Structures are given as structure tokens and as C-alpha cells.
Amino acid sequence: MAQHQPIRGNTPPTGSDIPDKLYFRIGEVSRLCDVPAYVLRFWESEFPQLKPHKGGTGQRLYRRRDVEAVLHIKSLLYDEGYTIPGARQVIKAEHRHKTSQLPLEIEAPAPNAQLRKLHKELRDLLAHLTKSPARPAVQSIRSSRPSASRRPEANKLFDPGPEN
User: Which phi and psi angles does 136 have, rounded to 5°?
Assistant: First the structure.
């Protein structure tokens, strides 16, 4: 199998050699990555992550991440010898690996005094929540009312009094 030789004698750029621009036209990307424009158009159909924006005139506008993706694809195909389906699998596996590992955010430990204070507040709260509630004295409705015999006005209502 023949080794890939760059068309031009210069070395391809790395991620840091890409000019600081928002968009690149296909011709610029072709020169930067040392890959013909028709190869870039073909790779767009083969690699779903390579989707340059098309401007109002239909011209492909590559962003910096698209150029980096082209350089990565080129490296997989030409330098490491992957086939297109193999390179597609490698990129998919890299993407899965990248999204499955989230960075750990470790907070600085709190000073001991803060921890002790928080621990005490939690114990007090627990004690308050587990304490049985104070029950008010419940009185029977019947026992709290005076009986009719004790209320003189009640007797007047039922006592017809002397008959005339």
C-alpha cells in the first residue's frame, strides 16, 4: 500500500495553526488541510459531524471546529490507515467517551467550625422533629357546658312558672 504524500511540500497545520476567523470557504479549508475540495464534499456525505453551514449564496462556510474535524479525519484516514467506516467508528467512539465522562467539580472542604455548627443545627432540628407534640387539654363538650339545672335562665325557658 502506498503511503500518502502531501500534494504540497509543506506540513499540514495543527489546531493552533488555523487562522483566527469565524468562517472559512471550502477553498481555504482545502489549502489549510491539503485536501482537494471534492474530497471535502465527499467527506461531508460520509461523516455526519462534518456539516458546514451554507450561506445565502450556497457557498460552504466552515467553522473552526469543522476545520479541526477535517484535520482529524485526514489524520485517521491518511496517517493511521483507517478506512472510512473505521474512521467513522473511531470518531463515534471518541464522541461517546467524551460525553460519558463529565468533569468532577470538587468543592473545597468547609472549615471544621462550619461543619460543627451545621452538625449541631441538624441535631437540633432532628430533636425538634422527633419530639412528641404537646397536646392541649381536650375537654369534652358536654362537661364544659353547665347543666340546665345550674343555669337559672335555662330553667326559665322550660319552667312555665306560676299559672295565672
Answer: -70, 150
What's the pTM? 0.52
Q: Which residues contact 148 (CB under 8 A, 6 or more apart)?
A: 154, 155, 158
Give the distance, in angstroms, between the CA of residue 146 and the centroid of all CA atoms in the same chain: 69
pLDDT tens string, the chain, 164 residues long: the values are 445 444 444 454 555 578 888 889 999 999 999 999 999 999 999 998 899 988 888 899 999 999 999 999 999 999 999 999 999 999 988 888 776 656 666 666 657 888 888 889 999 988 888 887 666 666 666 655 555 555 555 555 555 556 65
Exposed, middle or buried: residue 139 (CB in 10 Å: 0-12, 13-18, 19+)?
A: exposed
Is residue 31 a part of any domain in this protein?
A: yes
State the residue range of the domain holding 44: 22-100
Spatial distance between the Cα atoms of 138 and 146, rounded to a whole number of angstroms: 17
